[in-house]
């Protein structure tokens, strides 16, 4: 039996850290997960299926992940925390952009409607590091991103005199 769809729509998902690009995905939120598809057809196999533990809009002061980096450029964005059960630490936080304030509100309300266990609810965030700790991490990631892209642009052979 298929689960009830709480909300579906187009969202832009941020790709890995060193490739600061965003791709559109058709996202379908159900009680157990958020599935991301390449097209609006849900009959295909999802490109990505996420088990949501916590969420936060980029504009919130205690938003986690790289939300602070994207706050100005993506004001209608939100971040999902998938917990520590992910294969790699850099996959823990997934960033999305809803494009409009109305769509952002719809997604945040749909996440509120999820019935998460009490230990995993956003209010019980004892295991979440403080925003101050994330600020250091954000600065370091920004530095690494800029350093990496600079090397790619400067990967030309130097003039030999």
TrEMBL record:
Superkingdom: Eukaryota
All copies of domain PH, residue ranges: 4-116
Protein name: Small G protein signaling modulator 3
